[in-house]
Amino acid sequence: MSMSFDQYMRDMVQPMRDELTAIGIRELRTTEEVEASLPDAKGTALVVVNSVCGCAAGQARPGVAKALQHDITPDHLFTVFAGQDKEATAKAREYFAPYPPSSPSIALLKDGELVHFIERHQVENRSAEEIAEDLASAFDRFCR
Predict the structure, then answer these.
(1) Which one is predicted more confidently, 89 or 40?
(2) According to the UniProt entry, where is the signal peptide (predicted)?
(3) Catalytic residues
């Protein structure tokens, strides 16, 4: 039995994708999907740059899940997967200026403009609960 590397990677990352899509976050897998979603997202949009690294599993994805249990949440929920959907991720990152590429990372946009950003180094050094609190505070500030 032989399996291609690409198939192996797709199978390996699927549970990581599912962790976000299961809580209602929509994947943007192509540049066209990003272009059709982010600029026209009226109100607030959360964009999670997912990744295979341990801090994504241990802090970022669980932190986002906890934050989305808050009373106030963004109007739109999106995710791109760094290292997997490379073009879509690069396109989404254009909306995160002036921040350099970072994964995992979490962006909050309001009417297409970046209003809050959590970089990888802010994920690595904090717990899922701290990330959730940070996001909930941003939701309170920008999602009303």
Answers:
(1) 89
(2) none
(3) 53, 55
